[in-house]
Design goal:
The structure is a homodimer of 169-residue chains.
Chain A (H helix, E strand, L loop, with lengths): L20 H9 L4 H9 L5 H8 L3 H13 L3 E6 L7 E6 L1 H4 L2 H14 L8 E5 L6 E7 L11 E5 L13
Antiparallel strand pairs in A: 1-2
Chain lengths: 169, 169
């Protein structure tokens, strides 16, 4: 029986970094306001005036940022009308936006550990059903959880672009 | 037996958003280069020339960004010397930096789903021990996993700052 040779270990410098999905994600949510606005949407805000109150940013800036998030499909507009007032827009988070929740909670838990105010975390997140405190965990499909960098094996995916190695001796 | 009244539900607009741990985290890693540099560090790069090759950014910009990450305690400098060359610095990720890994993988998985190139993901992450594909999951301390926004209960933490409610009727 012949055995396949072990594949060469993945070397970062053999591959282009330009088509990285993480960079593509940052192109969409990496500006200063996208994640804070999405945080407010997760916290239940929908109305322009509420976003403005909570974020304390200028109306025109908020308007542009909300429009960008709508254009990217992270928020969607639904109109509402308080009796006696004009029709207004509400901003509701979409599935594409909701799937950023692990990013937000991962940032929150890191901030709670490494950049928290002396008084402690301003917000606590619990599992509604059992009151258990939440965290974000690196998990594998076979159920192993709380994995660390040393537990992770990296390999080239179908979209990997091989380049001349840049390893400098 | 008297029963305690149910606490009023948490309302975002009753609390200041200024001391948010997520914002504090973004103040440290929210600029354009911090997360891409940390990604390269997770991918195993340590040397200035390797970071430069992979990220394709200008030397002076990279130098400033690496210094910022060292100043924030996310990377630390260790010197090395190739025989016959001058002493150089390597940048190694610290515990504080390593704990950002869930943020990076959460961004990567979102990008793989919502912003990936047609060819597919360029990088695959697996659990080294069992070959299981990785993802980042919102998990509670009692072991419930893959929680969604609707499963999460938000409440005020010890650092919450109560403000006059901004709810607009």
């Amino acid at each position: 029986m012949t055995k396949n040779p072990a594949p060469a270990p993945w070397n970062r410098l053999d591959y282009s970094a330009e088509n990285c999905s993480l960079l593509h994600a940052l192109e969409i949510v990496g500006d200063k306001w996208a994640i804070p606005i999405l945080r407010e949407a997760f916290f239940g805000l929908r109305r322009f005036s509420d976003f403005q109150h909570s974020l304390g940013c200028a109306r025109n800036l908020l308007s542009t940022r909300l429009s960008n998030l709508v254009a990217e499909g992270l928020l969607e507009i639904q109109s509402y009308q308080v009796p006696g007032q004009r029709k207004r827009n509400e901003y509701r988070i979409t599935e594409k936006g909701r799937e950023l929740l692990p990013v937000l909670i991962a940032l929150l838990q890191w901030g709670d550990r490494w950049a928290v105010d002396p008084a402690g975390p301003p917000v606590l997140l619990k599992h509604r059903n059992c009151d258990g405190k939440l965290h974000v965990a690196i998990t594998c499909e076979h159920g192993h959880t709380d994995l660390k960098a040393k537990d992770i094996e990296i390999s080239a995916g179908p979209g990997a672009i091989r380049i001349a190695s840049g390893r400098v001796a």
